[in-house]
Amino acid sequence: MKHISILIPKGHVSVVNIAGTHQMLTWVNEFRKETGRDPLFQIQLVGLDMEADKNGGLFATRPEISIQNVKKTDLIIIPAIHDDFETVVKRNKDFMPWIVGHYKEGAEIVSLCVSSFFLAATGLLDGKPCSTHWQFANVFKEHFPKAILTDERIVTDSDGIYTSGGAYAFTNLVIYLIEKYADRETAVMAAKGFMIDIERGSQSPFMVFSGQKNHKDDMVLKAQEYIEQNYKDKISVNDLCENMALSRRTFERRFKSATSNTVLEYLQRVKIEAAKKELEKGRKTVNEVMYEVGYNDAKAFRDVFRKITSMSPRQYQVKYMPAI
């Protein structure tokens, strides 16, 4: 039987992560009993102490056991903690050596949503691919440059460390773990029972591009504003360079350094974000939207749209336009 430690950190913790994960893994045990098999998981809520924490004042969560009394565990699950990063680390620092120690002894580690920040602070994500909520991707990269953030991914799996994307994407990671620890049949039944899209692997359709503007390069900010105001027109990099009075090489280097995108990538993302908003309204055809955001080639528009959102324009429109 696999011992599962679901951590109960101090602070504003995601009760949904805790309760949802517990419910799904408990369901696996019940399903196995119904099909004549032994339960697979021993699940415990593990805290720094035995005190109940009021998680933002809405619900209280009480650990069943403290870290001092967990001698061996197979899987450690860290729920999202919605306080500022420094506060999270300060209040929960005693978890960190405990997590690292059990990992070295063979335990696997799971971070859900923004708990990737806390896990990264242990150093265990250095050099490993990981995910987090897409809204905090740029902040994560600034804090943990040694981690390999794949912010479009919903689930990552590397050397016994698993991470999930934002919010309810944790359910996809739990389904993934069920398949890994149990079998495909159980994972499929769990996905059907909890109505989870088992094959969803990307956060891209949910991402909202707002531009990477948390930098201090005024020239790049000026270029970003120009692109965002004129994306419907034909914009050339050479014209931007002339406006900024910089050589193309210098301009492109500074732009990429500040935004993590090339100028062309940034322009594409601005156009596609505008297209997404129009498609969500459902009032125009895909071709009308294509022309409106400055594309004339349907194939080029579809290819860029799919590259950024992992969906075709029509698929996106059907998924997000009003039902009535």
Automatic annotation (TrEMBL):
Residues 221-319 form the HTH araC/xylS-type domain. GO terms for molecular function: DNA-binding transcription factor activity; sequence-specific DNA binding. Pfam families: DJ-1_PfpI (PF01965), HTH_18 (PF12833). The keyword Transcription applies. InterPro entries: Class_I_gatase-like (IPR029062), DJ-1/PfpI (IPR002818), Homeodomain-like_sf (IPR009057), HTH_AraC (IPR018060), INH-QAR (IPR052158). Keywords: Transcription, Transcription regulation. SUPFAM superfamilies: Class I glutamine amidotransferase-like (SSF52317), Homeodomain-like (SSF46689). SMART domains: HTH_ARAC. This is Transcriptional regulator GlxA family with amidase domain.
